[in-house]
Design a protein that fits this description.
With 147 residues, the protein is an all-alpha fold. The chain has helices spanning 2-20, 22-35, 39-42, 52-109, 120-146. The longest helix is centred in the middle third of the chain and has 58 residues, at 52-109. The relative contact order is 0.08.
Length: 147
Amino acid sequence: MAGRIAQQRAQAQEHAQAAAGQSSAQSGVQSGVQSGCPPAAASSTPRIMPNAAEIREVKQKTHKFTRAAGRGMGGFLRPFGRVGGILWLEVTGFFFGLFAVFFAQDLWRARAGYASGPLHQRFLIAAVLTAVFAYLSISGFWRAKQK
């Protein structure tokens, strides 16, 4: 967009120079001859930069396009986000369930020492971890069902 604007400005300036006629070209050649510059250097066109208003217009159009594209992608991805959230809850619930089963096996092995004995501490730790992971597993599936 900025390149097109610069090209249009360059063409407009060339037309303005052509309309100014030979008088400005002749005076440029004469001043070039007087200053010691060759005529080709005196008649070269300067580099054209877009002004602030053109830059602001390009930025506004770009901002509008970016917002519209973001809204479009958001509308397209919203259903996938909902399904992805449900799937995430179910997958984490499954893995927490695996950990709960693992700790429940350890709890079953240490059941003989639940009141006293060398496995008492191991039994308590396995019981707490089984309860925590079972809760996380059940709550993950429950929240997935609520969505």
